[in-house]
Amino acid sequence: MMTHRQWWMVSTVISVLLAAYLIHLWVQMNDYDVQHSQIVNESDAQAFIKENWIDKQSANNKIAAPVSYIKTGVFIQSLKFDTSSDVNLTGYIWQHYQKGIHDHIIPKEGEVGFVLPEAVNSSVTTTQAYRIVSEEQISIGWYFEARVRQFFEYNKYPFDHKTVWLRLWAEHFSDNIVLVPDFGGYDATGINDVFGIAEDIVLGTWQREDTYFDYQLSSYDTNFGLVGNAKHQRIPELRYNIVMKRKFGNAFIIYLLPLFLVATLLFAAMLTVSGKHEISDRLGFSTSAFIGATSALFFVVLLAHIQLREQFAGSSIVYIEYFYILMYLLLVLTTANTYLFSIKSTLARRFVLYEDNLLPKLLFWPVLILGLIVITLYKQ
């Protein structure tokens, strides 16, 4: 027959092993790979455009004029999340126009050669920063400020990655113009290279992971009133992407640490539950005091949960919210346990009353951590 001390040692060992496995799962969630199809050089871009647009449109006699390629580059100087779906971006966009080929589409003074289709509330502000004219081409750069609206998934918060993209269209909508990345404007644009963003950019609770160009094949069910226009037929739209990873430490301190402290206080309150008068008198145990303590802890958890939910209004339940739901359940179960113990319920005699409420105390941490593991495996 095992002593109380041995039972507590078993409970402690199981809790430590479960906690180690939970931390292992967190590390896995924080390091998952973001899958994407990156365009790394000009030949990749030309091949993608030819295979996915030109060849298919030519087969359907949809392209009536030669395709014009405009080299376009992006440099991001600042990035800020205004809401869960709105991002403010500032930086530079530049384009190279070849003389004799692009003469009819070269922007004049005060004009721009691109459109940011996801900008909201007329938020795009552009200023021509430079205009360089050489024998072969005209290079124009604009400083821009834009607020773009995009859909982001937060269901794995705080172990989530975000890809913020800047979607670019050509200004001359009716011409067969395709924007291609200006790879020559960067030192390196390989798979593992980070480019087109300031090294000292302030991202708050985020850290940059990767940047890359790619194309999104967009389809529209209209020709926008332009006869013979192929713009709506899966044209490759250029996107500059920034992959970011959330800094887990901030969310841990703000949301997980208080939950851990609440669980610790709840466990300490459970340790006061005893039917032995010398112990209950010394610890000051009473059913009403325990219910009062759990009520106070409930409001602490509830206020923190409301603060968290306000950040993700309109989103589905995020990963960390399940921790709050688990804590609500734990508060109810511990309160029910204390009540059944106080009335010496015959329905729970073998569990609640056994050895002065020993089993619920032993199972508190293993059950709590196991519940976190189940939630984590569900949300992976």
Give structural notes.
- The protein is of the alpha+beta class.
- Helix content is 38%, strand content 24%.
- The chain contains 7 helices and 9 strands.
- It has helices spanning 4-30, 42-59, 248-271, 277-283, 287-311, 321-342, 358-379, and strands at 68-81, 86-98, 114-115, 125-133, 137-149, 161-170, 177-181, 206-218, 235-246.
- It has a 5-stranded mixed β-sheet. The chain has a 4-stranded antiparallel β-sheet with strand order 3-6-9-8.
- Helix 1 (4-30) runs parallel beside helix 7, helix 3 packs antiparallel against helix 5 (287-311) and helix 3 runs parallel beside helix 6.
- The model has no long low-confidence stretch (mean pLDDT 85).
Number of distinct helices: 7
Helix content: 25-40%
N- to C-terminal separation? Answer: 41 Å
- C-alpha-based Rg, rounded: 30 Å
Oligomer: single chain
From N to C, what is the helix and strand string? HHEEEEEEEEEHHHHH
- Please indicate the percent range of residues in DSSP E strands (runs of 2 or more): 15-25%
Low-confidence runs of at least 5 consecutive residues = none
Structural class: alpha+beta
Please, what is the average pLDDT? 85
Features:
38% helix; 380 residues
In short:
The protein is built from 7 helices and 9 strands. By secondary structure, the protein is of the alpha+beta class.
